[in-house]
Amino acid sequence: MNTTTYALPKNSQAWHDALFKVAHLLSDVHHTMLKDLPIFAITVVVNRSVLSSENSGIELLDEAMNRYMVNLSKWHLQMVYDDEAAKQAADKIVAGMTLADVVVSRYLLLPNDPEQMTKSKQEAAARIIDEQLTHHLKQCFSSDDGKDAVDVHILNINQVLTAPKLVCFDMDSTLIEQEVIVELARMCGLADKVSEITESAMRGEIDFAESFAKRVALLENVPESVVGEIIQKHITIQPGAFAVIRALKTLGATTVLVSGGFEPFAQHVAQTLGMDEFHANPLLVADGKLTGLTDSNILDGKQKALIVERTANRMGINLDEVVCVGDGANDLPMMAVSGTGIAYKAKPIVAAKADAAVNITGLEGVLYALGHRFDKV
User: Which residues are the active-site residues?
Assistant: First the structure.
């Protein structure tokens, strides 16, 4: 087994220290008001391959950020420096593979004269800054092959300071690289037809429950044995999945798989990754063959959100302490009820509505989006 190890700083105070450095701008602000202020935690992630080897990657990012700030005269940028004590006491996480080689830098961005702002106005401001800053940094750091080399994550500081106690993940194309229903269809020569319906549903073009029933109906009479064969030979875990689940559990979070796919696959993936729970649709079988029928209560986007809410309620936690990660339109409802929704290599409609979007790394990018350091040992 690959034992490549990464360091997760223990009880880091880096964001709190950065807030202390801008305390003069917040002299009349009580800590409970932070979520109502346009104080943004920015994490910039850049592929190391596009940075000059002659300079520190962090220095290059800082220079690029300072150039961006020239046009934001009414705003203040504060670098977030590493908490050296937390780094020394870091938990060591075995990632199971070498993760994306990136440089990560963190910043606080806030107005020189912060005033309370509604959540909708904060979100609008964050999206404008996100678009402008992402465009600026992509111009500064571009790859020769034309692929994106920069992720910019902008959250309200309260989202970063709130430790997640429950993190829920979609399965297909999130925790694993496949769509299981497409894999089932491929085994019986129906891949193209099922893929077309799946992609349309994930883009939000057709109702998920309706599309799910249509796809399952195509699988009538497929031998049940195909399920085990797919699990053994065709399901691959997403890069960074082991790392992020292990890191989140080290941070004290409960991890739950919430899938619109099927239970046998969800059980396999959750157990493989060491997750705490899984929820998925039953795969109905009769006489050793798939029936082509669906359960009366299909686990669609609305059901995903209900599962998240019920799990949080059972744990006795606030929804602000919940993070949801997914890639498809049916993941949007659970993202909407959570404190932070993160899109992973997602469809455009999902990336546009999520609080953060991970594109250039594996699932370890979820840790970066939440404001953590995660460096190779």
Answer: 170, 172
CATH of 163-377, picked from 3.40.50.1000, 1.20.120.1560, 3.40.50.700, 3.40.1280.10, is 3.40.50.1000
Concatenating the DSSP letter of every residue in 176-211 gives: BSS-HHHHHHHHTT-HHHHHHHHHHHHTTSS-HHHH
Domain locations along the chain: 1-161, 163-377
What pLDDT, in 10s, does the model give residues 327-374? 999 999 999 999 999 999 998 999 999 999 999 999 999 999 999 999
Q: Note whether 241 and 173 are within 8 A (CB).
A: no
Lowest mean pLDDT segment, chosen from 18-32, 182-196, 253-267: 18-32
CA–CA dist 105, 45 (Å, integer): 7
Give per-residue pLDDT as tens, 304-335.
Answer: 999 999 999 999 999 999 999 999 999 999 99
Q: What are the structure tokens assigned to 33, written together?
A: 């008001």
Instruction: Return d(Cα 175, Cα 277) in angstroms, integer.
Output: 14
Three-state secondary structure call for residue 154: strand
Angle CA 185–190–193, to nearest 5:
110
Which residues is 262 bridged to in the sheet?
A: 281
pLDDT tens-digit series, residues 283-293? 999 999 999 99
Q: Residue-wise over 158-196: b if at least 16 C-beta within 10 A, else e?
A: bbbbbebbbbbbbbbbbbbebbbbbbbbbbbebeeebbe
Neighbour-count burial of 21, counting CB atoms closer than 10 A to its CB (0-12 exposed, 13-18 middle, 19+ buried)? middle
**C-alpha span between 110 and 167 (Å, rounded):** 28
What does the CA dihedral 105, 244, 352, 371 come to, rounded to 10 degrees? Answer: -30
Rounded average pLDDT over 270-293: 98
